[in-house]
Design brief:
By secondary structure, the protein is α/β, with parallel strands linked by helices. It has helices at residues 3-16, 23-35, 39-44, 53-62, 67-71, 95-104, 122-130, 143-155, 213-225, 241-249; strands spanning 73-76, 79-82, 112-116, 135-140, 162-166, 177-182, 226-235, 254-259, 265-271.
């Protein structure tokens, strides 16, 4: 790697080490973004100059702006999503829901998919990418999020399969869905979060003193909307399996707990 680029990365990494656990990765992604190339190309075929805009990107990151907001994109499952201020940034833990759905529908793919709280289309579009004959509906209260979701569906050539509506969880919806996906807010209202996480929409993070407010609304709605042979994959905080399972059990539904790659409870597989 050319000395100018190498020195810029060393300096940026040293600064970013004070605010992130992945300073070198962040520095490389930001430099690649400034150059308009991929990180792989930066590493394998480095340029001989550092663009003037790189310094400004580092300052934004030092101010705890999420990396995904700066670059405007985030990889999730097998797709890349456009993201920005006003939407929840997709996280690897949520891929547990897609894994659970694939296992449940290994023999018979779902025909209909509902994603409650779709954000930028994260779970719905990842599922439709796998179940290519399915039709899906994504619901969100935020028009900002829905705008990102529609643009992501277009970019992934999934707009014929996916439609999006503004709504309040499952209120007002009718019919039954083979697969229901949901990653609701589940953080306790007084929880201390990292500064960069607090840049994400609080409505997508916090859910009352126990982090259970939205589950209490969702459990009866999912019971009403779930098809007889279908399943719902619902994300939870790693300490919430017992409390949230009880809410679904009270609706006459059975629940299995799935763990993420870190071995933490992360997904409830809900069935009739």
């Amino acid at each position: 790697m050319e000395s100018q680029v190498r020195q810029a990365l060393i300096a940026a990494t040293a600064r970013l080490a004070t605010i992130t656990d992945t300073p070198r990765l962040d520095a490389e992604l930001l430099l690649a973004h400034a150059l308009g190339i991929t990180r792989d190309r930066l590493i394998l075929d480095p340029p001989d100059h550092v663009p003037a805009g790189f310094a400004a990107l580092i300052e934004r990151r030092m101010a705890h702006e999420p990396l995904a907001y700066i670059t405007g994109r985030r990889d999730f499952w097998t797709i890349t999503l456009a993201v920005g201020p006003g939407v929840l940034i997709p996280r690897p833990d949520s891929e547990t829901l897609i894994e659970a759905a694939l296992e449940h529908f290994a023999a018979r793919p779902p025909a209909t998919i509902l994603d409650l709280g779709t954000g930028p289309g994260t779970l719905l579009l990842a599922a439709l990418y796998e179940f290519q004959n399915a039709q899906g509906l994504g619901v969100d209260a935020s028009e900002v999020a829905l705008d990102y979701a529609r643009r992501n569906a277009d970019a992934l050539c999934l707009s014929r399969q996916a439609r999006f509506e503004q709504g309040d969880w499952g209120a007002g919806l009718s019919g039954r869905y083979d697969l229901i996906l949901c990653n609701p807010p589940y953080v306790e209202s007084d929880a201390a979060l990292a500064p960069e996480v607090l840049n994400e929409p609080h409505s997508a993070l916090f859910a009352g003193p126990e982090g259970l407010d939205d589950y209490r609304r969702l459990a009866p709605q999912i019971a009403r909307l779930l098809a007889p042979e279908g399943c719902a994959c619902v994300e939870i905080g790693y300490t919430q399996a017992e409390a949230v399972s009880a809410l679904f059990a009270a609706q006459g539904l059975s629940v299995l707990v799935r763990r993420d790659l870190g071995g933490r409870d992360r997904c409830l597989l809900v069935r009739r």
